[in-house]
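[SOLVED] Predicted holo structure with 2-oxoglutaric acid

Edit: marking solved, answer below. Original request kept for reference. I posted the sequence and ligand SMILES and asked for the 3D complex as structure tokens.
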Amino acid sequence: MATDARQPLQLPRIDFSGVDTSAPGAGRWAAVRAQVVDALATLGCFDAHYPALTPDLRAAFFDGAVKELFALPADAKRRNTYGPDKPLFGYLGGMPGLSNGYESLAISERVEPESVRAFADLMWPNADDNAGFCEAVHGAARRMAELEEAVQRMVMEGLGVGRCHGEMRESMRHVFRMSQYRPPSDHTEGSKEVRYGTHQDCSTITVVCQHGDVDGLEVQAGDGQWVRYKPSSPASLVVMAGNELRAWTNDRVRAPFHRVAVGGDVARYSAILFALPGLRIQAPDELVDDEHPPRFKPHCNDDFMRFCIARGARHEDKLKDFCGA
Ligand SMILES: O=C(O)CCC(=O)C(=O)O
Ligand SMILES: [Fe+2]
């Protein structure tokens, strides 16, 4: 009888305990950096054990803030918009091309206390005090952004272009998304429905925080096999490279295709932090040579995002189609 000799894959796990994101270079930094560069170059994704986002912070965020947010009526949630030009910066739900069971809100541009407060005031204009909501959301978003910045710095240092970190950082905007995936209507054991179709992100780096053990995220490895993410610990986050890191590194990192497929009978919640560079994306000279000719033409992330929106979530290499050299 033929057997599948391949082991079910898991995301590589990288332990960030002992890495102080505010003290680059200290402690276990260099050892973790080597693992980060290796994981992003091979699979494009890893499971980060990141105790700075504590169980208390996660509970306050998901069980308090996020569930309260999704309980709002649809017309309140639809106020979360950054204009028709930036659909990926605000509310997504009930639109053609999106699964009915998917809904998502976002705090965009800067994830700072003021923008979280402005978002809360928009959702609950008559509330006396949104302080608990703001503290929980900012607490989670800030820690995810700290991890994202450390990973960006590690990639640049690891590729020998650490000098570029500051300029890239200055230009960085964030989209902090809170998403809900409703369970399938068919509760048959093992049945799953895709709630977010196969795509690559148009960020440099994406950090995903899943609530509890309601799984759903699947990442495609180079051999085509789908790897279903199971958090390695309650302190686990997913870090994934997006197409803009692939462009900026002249194809040294892999931006994996991924999707969200849910089963069971409870809703899945996740928070997703996307880092979007504001500067022109062009690989530094050090990453272009005879062995690595330029793979992508210089471009702006805004233009690439518009291209991706027009195409929709599809299993195709949009970066190559948009600006392949
Ligand atoms: O919710 C997740 O686990 C990932 C969602 C995702 O891939 C996205 O919003 O781009
Ligand atoms: Fe994604």
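OP edit: Residues 199, 201, 258 surround fe (ii) ion (ligand 2) (CB under 6 Å). Thanks to everyone who chimed in.
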